[in-house]
Amino acid sequence: MTKPPDLPLPSDWSPGRLRAQSVLAWLLLLAIACRHEFVWGGDLWWLLHTGEGLGLVAFTLLAGLAFAQGIRQASSLPLSFLLGTGITLTVLATIAPPFLSSDVFDYLARGRVEVLGYNPYTTTAQSLAADPRMAPYIGDGLAEWTTWVMPYGPIAARLQWLLAHFDSPWVGVYLWKALCAVAHVAAGWLLYLALRKHGERDAHRGLVLWLWNPWLLLENCNSAHNDALQALLLAAMVAGLAHAKAATATTSFGLSVLTKHGSAPFGPLLLGHAIRSRQVGGFAIGVAASATVALGAWWIYFREPGALDFLSKQADVARSSASALVGMALGAWAAKVVVGLGGLLMLTLLVLGWRRAEDTAMVGRFGVLLLAVFVFLCVPNFAPWYHLWWLPLFALANHPTINRAVELLAWVGPFSYLVYASTRSFGIGHQLWQFALAGLWPILLLLMDWRGIGGMVQKIAAAEDDGPSHKH
After folding, report:
1. CA distances from 49 to 31, 54, 59, 67 (A)
2. Which of 47, 136, 264, 285 is most exposed by smallest CB count within 10 Å?
3. To the nearest whole percent, how much of the chain has pLDDT over 70?
4. Nearest residue to 365 (alpha-carbon basis) of 466, 308, 446
5. Helical pair 15-38 and 79-95, crossing angle rounded to 10 deg
6. Do 25 and 214 form a contact (C-beta atoms < 8 A)?
């Protein structure tokens, strides 16, 4: 039964205050980003670095408090206000120059490789440094990972090629940021549609949880990670699953993997859901559609020898993951143990998930845990935005613990950049700080859902075991 909207409470903030404090926070962030990108400060650099760090704290507090209050009041606020404010914050986050990550410049540098007639999966930007058409990316030091080939899927590669035709990197960067901003808003809307099956109250809260989230706005719209595009496709998958549209869900999932392959371990749960809910035909249509796109990508990029080597070479990027940090302390054997334990836990989650795969909410809950374990224990390098590989599934699960983990990321995500903002260093101190805040705490909170899932599975197993005996 659809729940009616909540009535305003005396302690609620006015809509004007909610919007004003959120906008103020993002104007502060805009000032911080401009300083970081364009003003070093000469002899006073240390003072400006300190001020930038304090400014990031102030931004997180201002934006986080308005965000938390917005979630609490969401069910009593008009949809037009929630959308309008979310879009306003999206625009402000997009306008601010990217200052917490240089990845967007690397996207365009690899796109430029293809514009110049080379395959970005076999040719690095650095190898073309002598070409004056590559100078804005290499010579000016805008791109950071210039010795690596394209590490992402072919859909991301095509989009990066498309936006790398401009001579000015900044034009391409802001067009890419605009694309990611549209993806952020569209994903929020799809998650809203998925949650409406539970009622407008849940849908309103879920929309704010995504669209107003300070950390998501930083990653999707300011840094413009291509995970924002992957998240849009995952949100389309979630909406498809919520409304029993297996073909849409499977196609969207396939395209998300062809954008960035971080969510690939979810595939077996999607298959299990199709089998148990008797939607194998729709699943097959989605697989065929995805395979058609993959075939086109193979024809464009992967016929060249060595073009698929990027899949295995990514293991060489070992920085702030759990396995990398443990391996740094105890040795390579310990890193392998961590990855092995993560693999066993993922296998356990897949087996248990198959037993409840007909229930979309349980698919969401197992999917969140599965991908969170993958991000935390199995990937060779951890970054906060890797949480986007599972984050859209919160709307499918619609579970309080998972929702709280998404809300927690709104706080620990921005704070995880504090060391970098105040030092301009990506050293071990930054890596440990970021891993502890943006990795450890959200994962621990998600694991609180394990007991509830385990208990539910035990009850189902007992019911299945008792079933035949009652028939005799």
Report:
1. 13, 9, 15, 26
2. 47
3. 92
4. 446
5. 10
6. yes
What value does the mean pLDDT take over residues 80-106?
Answer: 96
**Cβ 396 vs Cβ 200: under 8 Å:** no
What's the whole-model pTM score? Answer: 0.93
Domain layout of the chain by residue ranges: 15-307+318-459
Packing angle of the helix pair 169-195, 103-115 (nearest 10 deg):
110
Residues whose CB falls within 8 Å of the CB of residue 102, separated by 6 or more in sequence, listed in order: 142, 143, 144
Assigned token pair, 87: 């879009």
- For the cut 70, the answer to whether the pLDDT of residue 461 exceeds it is no
- Hey, how many other C-beta atoms are within 10 angstroms of the C-beta on 309? 12
d(CA 291, CA 274) in angstroms, rounded, equals 18
Core vs surface per residue 218-249: b (16+ CB within 10 A) or e:
bbbbbbbbbbbbbbbbbbbbbbbbbeebbbbb
Check pLDDT > 80 for residue 465.
no
What span, in angstroms and rounded, lies between the C-alpha atoms of 130 and 144?
17
Q: How far apart are CA 430 and CA 439, in angstroms?
A: 13
Q: How many CB atoms lie within 10 A of CB 120?
A: 27
Q: Taking CA 186 as the corner, what is the angle to CA 19 and CA 86, rounded to the nearest 5 degrees?
A: 5
* Residue of higher predicted confidence among 381 and 20: 20
Amino acid sitting at position 3: K
- Residue 37's identity, in one-letter code, is E
| Angle at CA of residue 23, ends 20 and 27, nearest 5° | 135
CB atoms within 10 A of CB 308: 13
Asked whether the beta carbons of 370 and 266 are under 8 A apart, the reply is: yes
Q: pLDDT for 179-196, tens place per residue?
A: 999 999 999 999 999 999
Q: Report the candidate in 382, 367, 391, 376 with the shortest Cα–Cα distance to residue 342.
A: 376
Alpha carbons 207 and 231: distance in angstroms, whole number: 14
